[in-house]
Write a structure and sequence with these properties.
The protein is elongated. It has 147 residues and is mainly α. 73% of the residues lie in helices and 0% in strands.
């Protein structure tokens, strides 16, 4: 039966792809950070007046950040400190509880930003400021600058 062979072939490909995906945490976290960076860029453009404020786009930016935050800690398994092109600090593994708390705060703040649903630019600036503060805190503590 050809459909069964196709199904089994596709299943094997999906399993192989999921194993490969799970075995590259550096790439996974870089993709996640690019998603957050894109959302932050969109927000920043509205705040700077480079793009008009759009409540739906603001909410989408917060949603993207929140979605990424939910699995973010899993992108830093033991043993992924080195290898590849990474700027993570060993402090992530030395202070795992602090790192996890920082990510949890980001998740909470982005969830609160979604719930607040800022309807105008001034409200958005305030809400985004609280969310963005998390980025600076985490990057200073858990990232090595490429200077």
């Amino acid at each position: 039966m050809p459909s069964k062979k196709i199904f089994l072939s596709l299943s094997a490909v999906l399993v192989a792809a999921s194993v490969a995906y799970a075995q590259d945490p550096i790439s996974d976290r870089q993709k996640a950070m690019k998603m957050v960076g894109g959302a932050a860029k969109s927000a920043s453009e509205m705040i700077k007046g480079e793009k008009p404020f759009d409540a739906a786009a603001a909410l989408a930016a917060f949603q993207t950040m929140n979605d990424v935050s939910k699995d973010f800690v899993s992108y830093f398994p033991e043993g992924s400190e080195t290898g590849g092109d990474t700027t993570v600090s060993p402090k992530i593994w030395e202070d795992r509880a602090g790192f996890e708390a920082a990510v949890a705060k980001f998740e909470t703040d982005t969830a609160e930003a979604i719930a607040a649903a800022p309807a105008d630019l001034d409200a958005f600036k305030t809400t985004f400021g609280k969310v963005a503060a998390n980025c600076g805190v985490c990057h200073k503590a858990y990232r090595i600058s490429k200077k």
